[in-house]
Specification:
The complex is a heterodimer of chains A (367) and B (362).
Chain A: H1 2-6, H2 10-23, E1 28-34, H3 35-43, H4 46-49, E2 54-61, H5 63-66, H6 69-79, E3 84-88, H7 102-107, E4 111-114, H8 118-127, E5 132-139, H9 144-157, E6 162-169, H10 171-180, E7 188-192, H11 193-199, H12 204-211, E8 215-218, H13 222-238, E9 243-245, H14 257-266, E10 267-274, E11 278-287, H15 296-299, H16 315-319, H17 343-346, H18 351-358
Parallel strand pairs in A: 1-2, 1-7, 3-4, 3-5, 5-6, 7-8, 8-9
Antiparallel strand pairs in A: 6-11, 10-11
Helix pairs in contact in A: 2-13, 3-18, 9-14
Chain B: H1 40-54, E1 66-70, E2 74-83, E3 89-90, E4 93-94, H2 95-108, E5 113-124, H3 129-146, E6 149-158, E7 166-176, E8 192-195, H4 201-207, H5 227-234, E9 242-244, H6 250-262, E10 265-269, H7 277-286, E11 300-303, H8 308-316, E12 325-331, E13 338-341, E14 347-350
Parallel strand pairs in B: 5-6, 10-13
Antiparallel strand pairs in B: 1-2, 2-7, 3-4, 5-7, 8-11, 8-12, 9-11, 10-12, 13-14
The chains are: A alpha/beta (367), B alpha+beta (362).
């Protein structure tokens, strides 16, 4: 991973920061779409080094954050059932549903396991034929191919005791929803590099044209983000709105074709609710008809579980860039990483959690 | 007679019904894994459950070991620790070495020379005796290497399904040399913050062989007994203010505890942090912060700035401190908080980890 050093070089960073300062003549509001970018910006203090005129708005791209409350409650209901082995990535375990989280279900005797790949869950299913093994399949276009591959394998191998609790969401419809909002302040996007490494960049030019916003695909290391900001500001200052790929070492225009073929076979586009934002038409994936038998919601009959978000929480506004995290009245009070009310405080990569964790010096009343 | 500085008085009765416990997940009346993670959840369990429940009997200073004054002034350090590591065997060691070194180090962090240890085994029915034998041998070897005697012990077996493999508790007693006063409350603005070597190594070694996470790495646990290193540091004649071994919760948890106990700010310089490339890459892959990953053979020292070079030289001359370095300073600003200067020139707060370290989704 020599790469990491090369893309954190402070001397190169200084040059990029100087170029951004030189290029900026007026105020611009840029949204980084992905929680990984948010985390990198806050962790490295990048936003502190940008000109006052360049404001970074934190976008909705944290898969843990945007998983709807009712999906978490459905997961908790399934995980609590006897005979079920419920598998999840680690960071979903602390995300609270309306009354508890997966850690609590585990402590009450539920068989909840952290896995590092959905294929590990499938392996567990094959090793435990008398148990039902469920994998919590959440995330953006990034995590979806591996989940699709796992369901494909389950069908191919005839593993009947495996199912997927699906809550996949798609980035381009979210960008459109943000731009359609009457209160939208976003003038340009840093698109998420790993999403584009799967899906390519073809979905972005129509968005850039329709909403007249520059979209620059970036990675996650400090220099990736600074280069993305630099290119975005240069476009904005010149009155251009194009799609640029500032992450060519990982992203090709056509994307990862075999992965997209797998996705098209296993999933189909559906309407999806985003935690903190609400319903966005055609913004998610569900299992296609051919694979519907692997749908955990159907198998465990939890589709009638509905729950409402906290009325105190303003994470939807944070996710759309309308307010900064600390401007929510509940921030640091009723809502902390240990007791999160809403989407953006839920995951360590959420904007509110990043502010709470790393920015308390500036927010002195929040300790 | 005990000389314990922070007696807990006037503690309220524990009223479970009306309990407004600020422990995370307050709506869930049961223990979760994070309560044992060494971070904020562990601390709040002690503060809001154990200490109030113990009432006037509590004489806890909440350091790595208790300091007990006997007779005319002999000071003993006393510590206990339980080990439930999974897997029991990992690159560079086993639960056996950990259990000995862990308690030896807790004693060493008050400057004590460790003398005696107890071992209490809780064994799950069905555990292979060959595994238990390997662990017992590791205990013996580590104790011999550390120069401590195993003077008492206990063995219990729990039914299959009630436990998992081998759990091991060790308690230890050591003697603190006259004139030595090392305590988390003694950090002062201006003091230097030193670390004895590479950080995050043990945590990554254990994670690398956990079920489902077999990533190729050459990282081996750094488990080691540190009292010899501490003795070398004390031999410089420096007034060591604070020592901590950053185990669960990592460097981040230890420094936060020191900052709060001493009411000083701590400022780290990220580019000075000794994070080996293998640890950094593994943490990057898993979305973990090396500052929050456990260590088992490292110490943090807070010393007067004017003595820092002398202490560092003594540490670097010791086999367990060859890569010792200065990583920051205590400052008068942001009392109680740890802040890092990033490589790019920004800053960020280094928080106390909450519970368990959780690899992120992507």
């Amino acid at each position: 991973m020599k790469y990491l050093d090369e893309f954190s070089d402070p001397d190169v960073a200084k040059k990029l920061i100087d170029q951004i300062h030189a290029a900026t003549t007026q105020k611009w509001a840029l949204m980084e779409v992905c929680g990984g970018q948010t985390h990198s910006i806050i962790r490295h203090g990048i936003d502190q080094l940008l000109p006052d005129g360049v404001e970074m708005i934190h976008g909705p791209g944290c898969p843990v954050c945007v998983t709807p409350l009712e999906t978490i409650d459905r997961a908790l209901a399934i995980a609590a059932r006897p005979g079920v082995i419920f598998c999840s990535f680690g960071d979903m375990l602390r995300v609270p549903g309306s009354s508890q989280d997966l850690f609590s279900v585990k402590s009450a005797g539920g068989d909840v396991r952290v896995v590092y790949s959905p294929l590990d869950a499938l392996k567990l299913a094959r090793e435990n034929p008398d148990r039902e093994v469920v994998f919590f399949g959440i995330g953006f276009e990034t995590t979806a191919p591996a989940n699709a591959m796992t369901v494909y394998q389950a069908r191919r191998l005839g593993v009947r005791n495996f199912s997927l609790l699906v809550s996949h969401v798609l980035v381009p419809p979210a960008i459109a929803a943000i731009m359609e909002s009457s209160t939208c302040r976003v003038q340009a996007f840093l698109a998420a590099g790993h999403v584009c490494s799967v899906m390519g960049t073809a979905e972005y030019p129509p968005l850039a044209r329709k909403y007249k916003v520059p979209i620059v695909v970036t990675g996650f290391e400090p220099l990736d983000i600074l280069e993305g900001v630099r290119r975005t500001v240069v476009q904005l200052e010149a009155g251009r709105h194009e799609v640029e790929n500032a992450y060519p070492r990982a992203v090709r225009e056509e994307g990862n074709v075999p992965a997209m073929e797998m996705l098209a076979d296993v999933f189909e586009v559906t309407d999806r609710t985003w935690r903190g934002i609400g319903a966005i038409p055609r913004s998610g994936w569900r299992l296609s008809e051919k694979y519907r038998v692997f749908d955990a919601e159907q198998r465990f009959d939890v589709t009638d579980i509905y729950t409402a978000e906290s009325s105190l929480c303003r994470s939807g506004e944070v996710l759309q860039g309308l307010i900064k995290p600390h401007l929510c009245e509940a921030f640091g009070k009723e809502c902390t990483p240990r007791n999160p009310l809403g989407a953006t405080m839920v995951s360590s990569e959420g904007a509110c959690a990043a502010y709470y964790t790393h920015r308390r010096l500036e927010l002195v009343d929040v300790k | 007679m005990q000389d314990v500085t922070a007696m807990v008085n006037d503690v309220p009765d524990l009223d479970i019904e009306g309990w407004a416990c600020p422990v995370p997940l307050r709506d869930i009346p049961s223990v979760v894994m994070g309560h044992g993670g060494g971070g904020a959840m562990s601390g709040e369990l002690i503060e809001h459950l154990f200490l109030p429940a113990y009432g006037a009997a509590a004489a806890a200073d909440l350091g790595d070991s208790a300091v007990l004054t006997i007779g005319s002034g002999t000071r003993l350090a006393f510590s206990t620790d339980s080990f439930v590591v999974k897997p029991m065997f990992f690159p560079g060691g086993s639960i056996g070495e950990l259990a000995v070194n862990g308690t030896v180090n807790d004693l060493a962090m008050s400057g004590a020379t460790p003398l005696f240890l107890s071992t209490a085994f809780i064994l799950a029915e069905g555990t292979a005796l060959s595994d238990l034998g390997r662990i017992a041998q590791a205990v013996g070897r580590a104790a011999e290497d550390a120069g401590v005697r195993l003077v008492t012990g206990d063995t219990k077996v729990v039914e299959h399904g009630s436990g998992d493999g081998v759990y091991l508790n060790t308690s230890g007693i050591g003697v603190i040399p006259p004139g030595v006063d090392i305590h988390a409350r003694r950090a002062l603005p201006g003091d230097a913050v030193l670390v004895s070597g590479d950080i995050g190594v043990h945590g990554v070694a254990v994670m690398s062989c956990r079920e489902g996470l077999e990533f190729g790495t050459t990282v081996e646990s750094d488990t080691a007994a540190l009292h010899g290193l501490v003795a070398a540091m004390l031999a410089t004649g420096t007034d060591l203010h604070v020592l901590r071994d950053p185990t669960r919760g990592g460097v981040s948890a230890s420094l936060n505890e020191i900052a709060r106990a001493s009411d000083v700010g701590i400022e780290l310089v990220e580019r000075l942090l000794p994070v080996p490339p293998t640890v950094r890459d593994a943490c990057s892959l898993l979305g973990l912060d090396p500052l929050q990953v456990a260590n088992e053979g490292k110490l943090i020292a807070i010393v007067p700035a004017e003595d820092a070079d002398r202490v560092l030289a003594a540490m670097q001359a010791h086999p367990l401190g060859r890569s010792a370095c200065r990583i920051g300073s205590c400052v008068p600003d942001h009392a109680g908080m740890v802040v890092a200067k990033t490589g790019l020139g920004g800053s960020r707060v280094i928080g106390l980890p909450i519970g368990e370290q959780l690899p992120r989704i992507c």
